[in-house]
Write a sequence for this structure.
């Protein structure tokens, strides 16, 4: 019994770690050009991100420009000539959120690529659990269970979101299929009508020429 309980707790901990981990991304930026990172996020989700330029060569001091936009093209964050920065927002609409980075060095040319580290946290991973623990006076296993509860709620909301998207896509597909079917019927009807008119015209022509 104790072994099964321990296995259940360990499995729950693994699930929590899997779904609450933040996305740390290493981006290699060319001297010219832009690289973007996109994430499909649903409505009313907290997003936090930190970015820093990794300087391995002390002789050069590259900087970058950053622009974050919403699915409708609204500007959520814009920063230029930066080596470190962060942005935070709560999503107002569902869709793909885009973060674009490019080298923006005003202190001279940059030789080679510029490496950037982006730590992107979404939903439960972006929540300040230390503040929650202090406010509600919880710690240890109870705090981990609260984190797991938050992860489960996030998963449930994601499933509902995906179900809604699937229903929307199904509706669009059915509407498109219905329109294609009606278009095919109309095209067939027009072809039949044109063929009948051509036969009538040829019949009158041959009768006028007394060929039939």
């Amino acid at each position: 019994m104790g072994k099964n309980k321990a296995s259940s707790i360990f499995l729950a901990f693994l699930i929590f770690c899997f779904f609450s981990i933040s996305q740390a991304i290493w981006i290699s930026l060319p001297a010219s050009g832009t690289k973007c990172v996109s994430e499909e996020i649903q409505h009313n989700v907290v997003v936090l991100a930190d970015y820093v330029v990794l300087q391995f060569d002390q002789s050069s001091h590259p900087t970058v420009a950053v622009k974050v936009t919403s699915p409708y093209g609204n500007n959520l964050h814009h920063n230029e000539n930066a080596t470190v920065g962060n942005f935070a927002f709560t999503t107002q609409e569902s869709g793909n959120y885009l973060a674009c980075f490019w080298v923006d060095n005003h202190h001279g040319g940059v030789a080679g690529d510029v490496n950037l580290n982006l730590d992107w946290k979404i939903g439960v991973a972006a929540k300040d659990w230390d503040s929650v623990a202090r406010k509600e006076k919880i710690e240890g296993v109870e705090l981990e269970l609260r984190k797991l509860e938050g992860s489960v709620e996030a998963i449930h909301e994601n499933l509902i979101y995906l179900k809604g998207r699937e229903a929307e896509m199904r509706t669009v597909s059915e509407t498109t299929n219905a329109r294609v079917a009606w278009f095919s019927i109309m095209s067939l009807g027009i072809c039949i009508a044109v063929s009948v008119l051509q036969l009538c015209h040829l019949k009158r022509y041959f009768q006028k020429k007394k060929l039939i």
